[in-house]
Amino acid sequence: MPGRAQPEAPASPFTPASLTPTLPLQIAERIGAAIVEEQFAPGERLKEVELASAFGVSRASVREALRHLESRGLVRILPQRGAQVTLLSRQELENLFEIRAVLLGLAAREAARRPSASTRELLEAQLAKLAASHEQASAYARASAAMVEVLAHVSGNEQLAEMIAGFAQRIGRYTRLGLASRERRARSFAQWRRLAQAIAGKDETQAEDITRRLALENRDAALVEIERRARSHNASVLRKPAGARPGR
User: How does pLDDT run across 45-60, given as a tens digit for each residue?
Assistant: First the structure.
């Protein structure tokens, strides 16, 4: 009828934004990876101008990236002094690996509960990458981190996988220290191989036990390396002649 209000058109369906990482997040990932591999040393200052020039971006993008890294515990932003790589901490190391042991143990149990052919293929493919990188510490550490991602994925628990990914870089600094020696990497690889076998064999208890043991062995090896560094630093300080300026 004339004058009657027309019904409103139905609301358009929700269209999610692109999930492509923003530029600051991409920069944060690159800087975070460099911190994990100690291209930036613990305690080193991160200069916005130099980073902006290196990436070919604005200082605002670098500043936002550094804030992301601060939320991950990799960087500390100090008033009037800028960003600084956080120092390695024995207490943080112990706390992170306790959490990692629980989360990865649960992921392994979930994966062993219902292993599929694709699960076995993914684990075997990543085992091959671990074996190929055995002689090089940094490459093995990266392959080990990728193995953790695979384990989180095949657990089938998205929320658990998100939690594990959430502190991957933060704990990666310590994991790398724990894999510094060839003997330690050999032990690590043997444990990962046993874990893959336990998951394929649907042995939930053994899969969880192996994963917890792997995490705690990494913790202990990293603690030894941190203590070795501390002793070396203290000895270096004591050897400096009286009155010598720092860095001279």
Answer: 999 999 999 999 999 9
